[in-house]
């Protein structure tokens, strides 16, 4: 894990930009933090990156409000990572098929399942490296990710026993129902009622498929990109309850 | 409005038992309250009554936590009200039809629509009487009701302009989709994912039918009677946000 910069802000958040092998990431911790604390991994959306303003705001809230550590890696082909030629070719082929009238949801789901084969081991390695830091340590881990972050998050949470609670959403069951059934930790699942990208029945089917006895569905009117502004408070309380 | 008893408890809640015409009710207010405050009307479930332990706990939380007034009337045929022969006859006929294999949901919905023809004007009269009290006054009004309280609540909220926010749930669209479409105030809607009495599609259809631009669906695993214990906190915050 190589640190490239470390800056602290007056609201008490230290931000460290790092790379782990070929994975660029950002770690947020309380200024002057000492000892073990809960860690939340954020999975960004498609076409976004580790320092997307939404992600940064969410991370700062978890650090300042709860003293957590928060880490966000760039997904392959996103942010500071080079264009991935295989992914790019598949994405272009999918766009052509959608333009020719194909259903987008199964194509998106299959693509996300392909990317997850890389991100699941990458994110496990990120947890290893970050938890080896003295001011993070091996405390409980949470995962937050919607849209692409849900498609990649479901197989990650299913596979990684350190994750004790997860916030997922804006994703459907096409590719991930089997992995979802293996998730047993508490899950908060967010659905946009008028999502133009994920069919409602697909989202409801993914919530249904989750194996967790403690799961809750939160649905609001609006399209894929219109999650309500109150959501960060609600997810912060959820993580505080299960990791704090 | 005739008051039959008034008791105050050490946690700061005054409980007044009253009758308004033939309607028995209970009003909870902060001890020593002076002046106008938000008022929440609670609609109890089928076979329950105005002093059901769940209702009492919910009312006390709104009084002690937020300084609200809370009122709960007995629905006809429930609590201290006499058996209603017409309702009783219909309920017995429905039970026989369900035992013979009929779908319960449409029968229950039709029955609730019949009862609502009485409860809508009764509850409006209760608001008039309670808001005439100096320590309640004409502040914003909220409504809370699930199950029977949802079946009766949808037409009430649709009809009563004083209601500015409503919590509904455990009910389906069979009889009330048309009234639901006329509701435009913020709504929090609760659904039990494994509800054995209300088919899931019916519940989702009722949420879908609500005309409110600001509405949220909260779904949890479990049967009709197993709403999560965290729900009262969430609804208290909702009322505080919209009435406080």
TrEMBL record, chains A, B:
<comment type="similarity">
    <text>Belongs to the AB hydrolase superfamily.</text>
</comment>
<dbReference type="InterPro" id="IPR002925">
    <property type="entry name" value="Dienelactn_hydro"/>
</dbReference>
<dbReference type="InterPro" id="IPR050261">
    <property type="entry name" value="FrsA_esterase"/>
</dbReference>
<protein>
    <submittedName>
        <fullName>Dienelactone hydrolase family protein</fullName>
    </submittedName>
</protein>
<dbReference type="InterPro" id="IPR029058">
    <property type="entry name" value="AB_hydrolase_fold"/>
</dbReference>
<dbReference type="GO" id="GO:0016787">
    <property type="term" value="F:hydrolase activity"/>
</dbReference>
<dbReference type="Pfam" id="PF01738">
    <property type="entry name" value="DLH"/>
</dbReference>
<feature type="domain" description="Dienelactone hydrolase">
    <location>
        <begin position="60"/>
        <end position="221"/>
    </location>
</feature>
<keyword id="KW-0378">Hydrolase</keyword>
């Amino acid at each position: 894990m190589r640190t490239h910069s470390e800056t602290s802000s007056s609201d008490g958040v230290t931000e460290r930009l790092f790379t782990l092998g070929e994975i660029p990431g950002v770690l947020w911790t309380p200024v002057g933090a000492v000892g073990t604390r809960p860690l939340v991994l954020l999975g960004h959306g498609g076409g976004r990156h580790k320092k997307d303003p939404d992600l940064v705001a969410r991370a700062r809230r978890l650090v300042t409000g709860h003293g957590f550590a928060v880490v966000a890696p760039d997904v392959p082909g996103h942010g500071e990572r080079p264009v991935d030629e295989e992914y790019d070719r598949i994405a272009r082929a999918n766009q052509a098929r959608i333009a020719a009238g194909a259903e987008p949801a199964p194509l998106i789901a299959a693509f996300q399942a392909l990317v997850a084969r890389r991100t699941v081991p990458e994110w496990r390695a990120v947890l290893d490296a970050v938890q080896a830091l003295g001011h993070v340590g091996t405390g409980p881990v949470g995962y937050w990710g919607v849209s692409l972050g849900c498609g990649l998050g479901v197989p990650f949470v299913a596979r990684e026993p350190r994750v004790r609670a997860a916030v997922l959403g804006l994703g459907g069951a096409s590719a991930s129902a089997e992995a979802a059934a293996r998730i047993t930790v508490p899950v908060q699942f967010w659905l946009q009622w008028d999502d133009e990208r994920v069919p409602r029945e697909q989202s409801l089917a993914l919530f249904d498929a989750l194996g967790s006895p403690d799961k809750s569905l939160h649905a609001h009117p609006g399209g894929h990109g219109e999650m309500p502004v109150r959501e960060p408070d609600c997810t912060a309380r959820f993580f505080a309850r299960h990791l704090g």
